[in-house]
Amino acid sequence: MKVVVIGGNAAGMSFAAKYKRNKPSDDVVVIEKRDHISFGACGLPYFVAGMFDDTERMISRTPEQAIASGLDVHVNTEMLSVNRVKKQILVRKQNSEQVLDYDMLIIATGARPVIPDFGEYRSEFVYTLTSQADGLAVKKALGDNNKQRIAVIGGGFIGLEVFDAAHGLGKHVTIIEREEHIMSQQFSPDMIKVVEEAIRDSGADLKTNTSVLAIRDSEQDGYIIDTDRGQVDADIVILALGFIPNTELFDLPKAANGALLADEFGMTEDPHIYAVGDCAVVHHLTLEHSVYIPLATTANKQARMMADKLAGKETHMLGFLGSSSLKVLDYELARTGISERMANMYNMDVSVSTIVDKNQTDYYPGQEDIALKLIYQPESHELLGGEIIGKKGAVNRINALAVAISAKLTTEQLGYVDFAYAPPFSRTWDALNVAGNVAK
Ligand SMILES: Cc1cc2nc3c(=O)[nH]c(=O)nc-3n(C[C@H](O)[C@H](O)[C@H](O)COP(=O)(O)OP(=O)(O)OC[C@H]3O[C@@H](n4cnc5c(N)ncnc54)[C@H](O)[C@@H]3O)c2cc1C
Fold first, then answer.
1. Phi/psi of residue 162, nearest 5 degrees
2. Is the pLDDT of residue 8 over 90?
């Protein structure tokens, strides 16, 4: 059996490594167009913030290490096309093209940043933050003391991580967000408000409800960003407007955003072609529907599950919840499962309960408010999703909530879960217990 994997990053390498361990006698070929594999882009915001300097620390495995483990890895090699009838792909390495046969093709081509047409401008200090090269360039630019005005276009995960990094370096940051609120895909307006206030209180300029129309060069070496609500001056511009799946080369059914449609095991309409990671949809546990969740956690877990499934082993994947977390200033933001927005989108009848409690006892230093929102089934009270925002302890609590949702607990059962208690970490009734008990 010859398995060919297109894309040698989180999804592709997780699949390839696990499949090879499962089936050592099968040929596993990895085709990667960049000169490296297994690059963890999640570290980039912390790299540009100056928390570490060696880009190698974001690379978990070199091509040589992967080859030594038995994988046939080809870097600097791009897949150009697929012939599904002959079960062949065409690849190009340097200037030569080659045809490769496959028995099973795994598409793990990821996604690329959206770069809208904002007109003509010098591209020198306008960046995305996705690759190693982006990271090096952004870090260098942020290190220039003559460049103090940073404009971040897009108030999602990456935009806010870049804000946090640049703010920490003492820069003046303007965040421009088209929606009424930042993180509008992940958090509800009443929950995210406290973070928006904190961003504004930090001295940054947060412009919500504001669309960028054009970027122009200014006379003084910087940029003028034209928006529908006036101009923003900047020395450095970061584009953080989301991602488009890299799926144009594949003539297979796709979702509206271009992500490849696949069943819960990653199989596309062609039983010899599977898709995984940022290029494909996955099965949502509580929504019971395919959704696009472009996260490293999703890519890794789906890939490992697929490697077991295709090797004929038992799999234990329940489905995805889109659990995710983020640090903004002193705040921890975390969410899991269905949001109110998703419930509306899928016409689901849900109940919602929000509380503001305390993260720990008052006599131990560090007591802070913690806001929790639970989304649950109106009749059975089965937990479906939640959001938690606080200054300390939010992220760990979302992990407990993700377990509770996976185990199909009700709000009443959450109210009695035997969480640990000691004064520095919680109160006798943890905030999650309180949220469960308050939900009606
Ligand atoms: C700044 C940043 C921060 C992030 N932070 C987090 C986080 O905190 N938590 C989290 O869960 N996720 C985070 N993510 C998301 C995470 O990095 C992605 O979900 C993950 O990388 C997806 O892995 P993938 O293998 O599907 O795709 P990719 O990482 O995009 O890899 C796809 C690979 O395919 C290759 N390829 C594409 N087309 C071809 C072709 N035709 N031929 C050969 N090779 C090809 C590409 O070169 C690439 O190496 C972050 C992303 C970024 C950019």
1. -70, -40
2. yes
Per DSSP, 21 falls in state H
From 191, 143, 151, select the one nearest 170 (Cα to Cα). Answer: 143
Measured distance CA(325)–CA(66) in Å, rounded: 30
E-state strands within 47-103: 72-74, 77-83, 88-93, 96-101
Beta-strand pair 236-239/230-234: unpaired
User: How many other C-beta atoms are found inside a 10 Å radius of the C-beta of residue 123?
Assistant: 10
Banded pLDDT at 288 (limits 50, 70, 90): confident
pTM: 0.97
Q: Report whether residue 227 contacts ligand 1, using a CB cutoff of 6 Å.
A: no
Q: Mapping DSSP to helix (H, G, I), strand (E, B) and coil, where does residue 427 land?
A: coil
Buried b / exposed e along 369-397 (16+ C-beta atoms within 10 A): ebbbbbbbbeeebbbbbbbbbbbbbbbeb
- Can you list the alpha helix ranges (DSSP code H) found in 273-326? 296-310
Ligand 1, pocket-test mutation among 4, 6, 9, most atoms within 8 A of CB: 9
Q: Look up residue 57 and give its DSSP letter.
A: G
